[in-house]
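Standup notes
- DV: blocked on the single-chain target, sequence here:
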Amino acid sequence: MDAKKGSVGKAAKGCAIRIVDEAKNILPANEPGLIYLGNGRQFEYHDEHEKTLQAMGLDGLATMGDSGYLDQDGYLYLTDRQSHMIISGGVNIYPQEAENVLIEHPEIEDVAVIGVPDAEFGEEVKAIVVPASADHDAAALSGDIIAYCRSRLSAIKCPRSVDFVAELPRSDAGKLLKRLVKAPYWKGHDTTIV
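- DV (later): unblocked, structure below
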């Protein structure tokens, strides 16, 4: 049987997948959370005992820091990396949700959604956009992008501000290098949490 569209498939025989919240409670189908995996073998990072201990935790299962959900048929869908999660006012926000919406905007060529410092909420959601055309009114397009996202997602998951760039940093394989996108906004902060 083929995997469902957008899914990475089901667990292979002998493997287990659990989706959990921050308290490590197992979540029901279609609820995104942290993914724990296991196949009965001992998992260990090479020469990184502390990192191994941080990854372990749920009935011998381990996490690689990915977030996602299982559907009612046991198919796994990835939503984001835990390290990309934005925490704003105590709410966990997975930027991939907004990125998936915004990339459909006809005036956006490329987009990254990140958390930037916010004195009141810890982090604020910001979109870094490569516009489809160099000829645009930045203020008008920013407002349109925010409204577009809010018409499809909860306002808390959408950017409160938009910056425009000529291009986003990507690896040779095309992977977005979020740490490079975030770096200028967090300069002068000891951590990426305010």
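- Follow-up: The chain has a mean pLDDT of 83.
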